[in-house]
Design brief:
single chain, 117 residues, mainly alpha, 1 helix
Length: 117
């Protein structure tokens, strides 16, 4: 069978078929991109909520840090007082021992007998 010569209508039909096929593919791609845009918008909204919660948690952690620092300052003050009291007790005990020694020395010199009651 001999080949039929190609006329202008055949060329236009082929071009029309190709443009339809390309157009359908672009439409499908557009739909996929639209779906992806919707997913990205949803993810953006979720990320915004997460960021907001993180900021709230950061504020809470800052408040907790401030409270902990205040507690440590109070504890440091109490520890300083306890250390001062302990030093005073050591000094007082040493003074008491020295005074008892003097009392016994005086009692010996005066020939007195001391009674513990």
């Amino acid at each position: 069978m001999p080949k039929k010569p190609t006329d202008l209508d055949d060329v236009i039909g082929a071009i029309s078929d190709i443009t339809t096929m390309v157009s359908e593919r672009f439409d499908a791609m557009d739909q996929r991109f639209d779906a992806m845009d919707q997913r990205f918008d949803a993810m953006d909204a979720r990320l915004f909520r997460v960021e907001s919660k993180l900021e709230e948690h950061d504020k809470r952690f800052d408040e907790i840090d401030a409270k902990i620092n205040k507690i440590f300052q109070i504890l440091d003050g109490h520890m300083k007082r306890i250390e001062d009291i302990l030093q005073d007790n050591v000094a007082r005990d040493a003074q008491q021992v020295r005074m008892e020694k003097w009392i016994f020395q005086i009692a010996d010199k005066l020939d007195l007998k001391l009674k513990y009651e």
